[in-house]
Specification:
The protein has 324 residues and is an alpha/beta fold. It is built from ten helices and ten strands. Helix content is 36%, strand content 13%.
């Protein structure tokens, strides 16, 4: 496993991180989740990502239980705040009240004394950004979190936050967690440049496009049973990828992976890691063997010729906008 600095901070995270969206505490049994986390840890993954909103705290409980056997200083634990955790008017968002209360709740569910990284899960139009940033800065001062960041903020929102932290002498943002994969590349235009300029590292989610970039879905064929797309409860995030135009180009990408004697999933993650502004690619896994396969992407180096060939295929689906 290789490690990269999280933005301009001194914190080092594994190039491959393990996430828990749509999996742990929900569709994946607790023991399977624990086995995946243990496998990742044994393979050198030190970055584990979750959120309070993942099945209303259940994912945090599973992640906390799985990490309990390991020394606290040996891993980097990240969670997030924003989405509703109750029905009350203050049970959501990025107000001082909600952030403070949810930080304490996450610490309790995870069974730890501090969070390495605490991220704003989305931007809150109803709360002044300065209030949010001051609250996060206070949590660092209190020792409850070590670093803070954002998720899916626009370049303009990130820029405004950076200006506020500088003007008010607050601790800086160190991370942004956007969706980023071969099929969804919007961050390359504005988010990546401003983030690199300001020392903000990307910890990207959905690097395999909800499993599309594993090659399991084929153009003109029925959706395989026992796959994410076959699950009516969660396929709203994947259905927009399932068209033959996209799948035909994915098949061509799989051919490139075959020529390199690697899996398509490994090619997809290695392609993400070509970006120096990316600190970690957060993968999901429901079985330990998936963790092993994905972690191997950290060893893959893609030549300029291969990257050019990949780009020629991706340009044909430029502008694709998924529903997620």
């Amino acid at each position: 496993m290789k490690y990269r600095r999280l933005g301009n901070s001194g914190l080092k995270v594994s190039e491959i991180g393990l996430g828990s969206w749509l999996t742990y505490g929900e569709t994946v049994g607790n023991q399977n989740a624990i086995d995946c986390i243990h496998q990742a840890y044994e393979l050198g993954v030190n970055f584990f990502d979750t959120a309070n909103a993942y099945n209303r705290g259940e994912a945090e409980k599973v992640v906390g239980e799985a990490l309990k056997p390991f020394s606290r200083e040996s891993y980097v634990l990240a969670t997030k705040v924003f989405f509703p955790m109750g029905d009350g008017p203050n049970d959501r968002g990025l107000s001082r009240k909600h952030i403070t209360e949810q930080c304490d709740a996450s610490l309790k569910r995870l069974g730890v004394d501090y969070l390495d990284l605490y991220q704003c899960h989305r931007f809150d139009e109803d709360t002044p950004t300065e209030e949010t940033l001051r609250t996060l800065d206070d949590l660092v001062q209190q020792g409850k979190i070590l670093y803070y960041g954002v998720s899916e903020w626009t370049a303009a929102q990130i820029t405004d936050a950076v200006h506020i932290t500088k003007e008010k002498n607050l601790r800086p943002l160190v991370s942004n967690q956007p969706i980023y994969n071969m099929l969804v590349r919007y961050i390359e235009k504005e988010v990546l440049p401003i983030s690199e300029k300001e020392g903000i590292g990307q910890v990207v989610f959905s690097p395999l496009a909800q499993g599309i970039l594993t090659g399991k879905y084929k153009p003109g064929q029925e959706i395989p049973t026992n796959t994410r797309a076959a699950n009516e409860n969660i396929n709203r995030w994947i259905k927009s990828y399932l068209n033959d135009d996209v799948l035909e180009r994915v098949a061509r990408l799989e051919g490139i992976a075959g020529d390199l004697n690697i899996k398509l999933s490994q090619l997809a993650v290695a392609w993400i890691l070509r970006q120096p502004g990316v600190s970690s690619a957060i993968v999901g896994a429901s079985r330990p063997e998936q963790v092993t396969e994905n972690v191997k992407a950290s060893e893959v180096e893609l030549s300029d010729d291969v990257l050019t060939e990949i780009e020629s295929i991706l340009k044909e689906i430029d502008g694709f906008v998924p529903i997620w």
